[in-house]
């Protein structure tokens, strides 16, 4: 049986095959193929990215668009590689040196080794396919094999080409603080479109991913080509149409204008830029990303994300030991599993103006250190977490007084303060060592299970050599902490969702999605976030009504139903909640714990933009959120991917529904009023 499958569908496995005669490499995932072919000029070209092909089929395709277009010659589009040698000559003329294929169980890696024809620059194009994943991961490595320095003006991880279609559309998310992940879909303009962050973090303004379709894809059908960059610093993607109208894009770390000097023998390796082809629309695209991230990106994908309480919205900077203990008691009462104390527990941090950098408990607020609070939280049956912002410093801090040279700065330039803080120069190894030292000490001396790692301002006064080592050192500190404290959970945060990307997700467990906790606005934020990133990583709090930002009133049930579609947290001032709201909170938290494995481990189906279904095995959960009274959603919410011949039991009412009926007529639950919501749990009780 297995042999037959191999014979009839060789492309269904994750493999890498080389055809020497055609100078062709074929990478296959379970439902896609990616083909690279050398041209007569020795340059690497894409030959195919799309539906599965056999090597025989791929061989019929010519080299098409370049895999990593370099500046020079007859190329006038955005270059992936811009190089300047010691004699001021620019560009690359390709020479193929060889390749290596490393099989891994169920996957593999390919390295296509290239060099410049005349200059001692080696360029390796890396590819990786992972077991069961639909992703093709790509990155680039440069090596200066000579004796003179080489200037790198641009080195992208990869360029991607969509196959020829009559027209193209692009999908991405844009936003700002409190308005992250707003989905945008529109035509790919002629000329060039640049998506970028120049801020030193991946940014609230546009998230580092991009989807392309031919204008004919929809939620459940059509081909979609998507890519996401695993980098948490500044970045750039340039999307263009060439003279034939073809869409292609190149992307990698660094924004325009940065240059790097590659000394003799030195290497530069880019972050991974991952591509995903889906034949089944935007929904299929999202599910492929969720699968890939859960299996191959997250450091601890199977770890249960605890229900957290976070004190920030309740207290801001005005905190005390007694008040934190009281909040912890309320939190335990509603079923919270991990209590997180946010900002203002340390140094002289009583407001934005002071204390960042002085990472010891504020002696006025915690005269006996953190132990009494942590013990209290643990006695209540919860684990303890704490907020840190290791990259920042207030000028008014002992750290800054001792080490003013540690902040990002440049001679003859003012040191720009934002939120009354400066950034530490994490590209310096002494700064990174210092940060690792106090964090490790904090975690070793105290029973802390969770770090919320925040970063509240962009880079300013950063020299060319800061942008990349800074982020690599942040990664290294996180990686070391995880290795030495294997049960630690980390939440990535940058004033909300300013640093949400595959690089951060490779060393965190969840992301604080947005400081905007207005449940109604959150529906759109979550809609954008989950286009690529899975629900188990989407930190989502229930906060107070009226909401702190929008002043909107909304029922506690609605607020919970929105947050329960991600990694649930509670972030309101529980000391002011009514008995009735606390009862609802306890009941809904309990319900969330039952559905958590389905939401976090299941397959997500968007049912329009205000309803989401998660299905795992026989179990299905559907959330429906009424957006505003002006938009009536009495239209049916049609379920997806059920067994048409199966019978499904509604776990609240006990009613039985046919899968086919649920998929063609929808849930029998109209929601006529503003901020109404519904959570439906279905279990398949019989199947075909
Ligand atoms: C920004 C974060 O997004 C908030 O949740 C909170 O942690 C504050 N920083 C604390 O300063």
Unreliable residue runs: 1-11
Helix count?
14
Percent strand: 25-35%
Structure classification: alpha+beta
- Count of DSSP strands: 38
Query: Outline, from the CA principal axes?
Result: globular
Radius of gyration: 26 Å
Q: Which small compounds were modeled alongside the protein? A: (2R,3S,4R,5S)-2-(hydroxymethyl)piperidine-3,4,5-triol
Report mean pLDDT, rounded to a whole number. Answer: 95
Helix content: 10-25%
**What's the N-to-C terminus distance?**
24 Å
Tell me about the largest β-sheet: 10 strands, antiparallel
Could you describe the 3D structure shown?
It is globular, with a radius of gyration of 26 Å. Strand 9 and strand 10 form a beta hairpin. The model is unreliable at 1-11 (pLDDT under 50). The strands form seven sheets. Strands 7, 8, 9, 10, 13, 14, 16, 17, 21 and 22 form a ten-stranded antiparallel beta sheet that branches. Strands 23-24-25-28-29-30-31-32 form an eight-stranded parallel β-barrel, surrounded by five helices. A six-stranded antiparallel beta sheet has the order 33-34-35-38-36-37. The protein has 14 helices and 38 strands. It is of the alpha+beta class and 688 residues long. Helix 5 packs parallel to helix 6, helix 8 (429-445) packs parallel to helix 9 and helix 11 (519-529) runs parallel beside helix 12. The structure holds (2R,3S,4R,5S)-2-(hydroxymethyl)piperidine-3,4,5-triol. (2R,3S,4R,5S)-2-(hydroxymethyl)piperidine-3,4,5-triol (DGJ) binds next to loops.
Concise structural overview:
This protein has 688 residues and is of the alpha+beta class.
């Amino acid at each position: 049986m297995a042999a037959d499958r191999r014979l009839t569908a060789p492309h269904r496995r994750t493999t890498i095959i080389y055809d020497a005669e055609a100078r062709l490499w074929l990478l296959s995932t379970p439902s896609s193929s990616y083909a690279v072919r050398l041209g007569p000029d020795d340059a690497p070209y894409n030959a195919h990215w799309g539906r599965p092909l056999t090597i025989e089929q791929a061989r019929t395709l010519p080299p098409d668009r370049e895999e990593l277009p370099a500046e020079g010659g007859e190329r006038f589009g955005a270059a992936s590689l811009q190089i300047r040698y010691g004699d001021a000559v620019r560009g690359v003329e390709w020479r193929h040196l060889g390749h290596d294929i490393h099989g891994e169980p169920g996957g593999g890696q390919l390295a296509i080794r290239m060099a410049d024809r005349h200059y001692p620059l080696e360029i390796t194009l890396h590819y990786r396919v992972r077991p069961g994943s639909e992703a093709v991961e790509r990155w680039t490595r440069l090596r200066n094999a000579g004796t003179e320095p080489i200037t790198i003006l641009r080195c992208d991880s990869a360029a991607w080409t969509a196959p020829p279609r009559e027209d193209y559309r692009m999908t991405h998310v844009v936003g700002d603080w409190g308005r992250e992940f707003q989905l945008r879909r529109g035509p790919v303009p002629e000329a060039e479109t640049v998506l970028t962050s120049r801020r030193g973090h991946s940014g609230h303004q546009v998230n580092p991913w991009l989807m392309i379709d031919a204008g004919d894809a929809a939620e459940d059908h059509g081909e979609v080509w998507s890519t996401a960059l695993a980098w948490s610093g500044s970045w750039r993607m340039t999307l263009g149409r060439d003279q034939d109208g073809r869409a292609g894009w190149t992307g990698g770390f660094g924004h325009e204008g940065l240059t790097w000097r590659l000394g003799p023998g030195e290497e530069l390796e880019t972050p991974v830029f991952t591509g995903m082809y889906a034949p089944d629309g935007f929904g299929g695209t999202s599910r492929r990303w969720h699968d890939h991230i859960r299996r191959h990106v997250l450091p601890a994908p199977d770890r249960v994300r605890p229900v957290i309480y976070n004190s920030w919205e309740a207290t801001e900077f005005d905190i005390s030991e007694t008040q934190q203990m009281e909040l912890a008691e309320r939190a335990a009462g509603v079923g919270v599993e991990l209590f997180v104390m946010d900002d203002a527990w340390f140094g002289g941090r009583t407001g934005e103006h002071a204390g960042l950098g002085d990472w010891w408990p504020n002696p006025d607020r915690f005269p006996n250190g953190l132990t009494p609070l942590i013990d209290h939280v643990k006695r209540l049956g919860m684990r303890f977490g704490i907020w840190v912002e290791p990259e920042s410093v207030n000028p008014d801090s002992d750290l800054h007084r001792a080490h003013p040279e540690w902040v990002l700065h440049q001679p003859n330039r003012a040191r720009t303060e934002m939120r009354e803080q400066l950034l530490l120069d994490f590209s310096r190894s002494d700064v990174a060592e210092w940060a690792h030292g106090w964090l490790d000490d904090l975690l070793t001396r105290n029973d802390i299970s969770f770090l919320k790692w925040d970063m509240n301002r962009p880079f300013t006064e950063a020299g060319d050599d800061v942008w990349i080592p800074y982020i690599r050192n942040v990664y290294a500190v996180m990686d070391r902490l995880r290795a030495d404290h294997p049960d630690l959970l980390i939440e990535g945060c940058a004033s909300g969702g300013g640093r949400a990307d595959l690089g951060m997700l490779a060393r965190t467990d969840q992301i604080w999605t947005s400081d905007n906790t207005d449940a109604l606005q959150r529906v759109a934020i979550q809609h954008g976030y989950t286009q690529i990133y899975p629900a188990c990583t989407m930190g989502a709090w229930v906060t107070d009504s009226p909401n702190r930002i929008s002043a909107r009133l909304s029922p506690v049930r609605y607020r919970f139903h929105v947050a329960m579609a991600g990694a649930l947290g509670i972030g309101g001032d529980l000391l002011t909640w009514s008995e009735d709201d606390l009862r609802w909170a306890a009941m809904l938290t309990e319900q969330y714990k039952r559905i958590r494995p389905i939401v976090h481990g299941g397959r997500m189906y968007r049912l329009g933009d205000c309803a989401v279904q998660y299905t795992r095995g026989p179990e299905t959960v559907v959330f429906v959120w009424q957006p505003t009274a002006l938009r009536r959603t009495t239209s049916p919410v049609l379920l997806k991917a059920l067994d048409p011949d199966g019978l499904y039991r509604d776990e609240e009412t006990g009613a039985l529904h046919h899968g086919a009926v649920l998929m063609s007529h929808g849930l029998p639950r109209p929601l006529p009023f503003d901020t109404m919501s519904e959570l439906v749990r279905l279990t398949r009780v019989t199947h075909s």
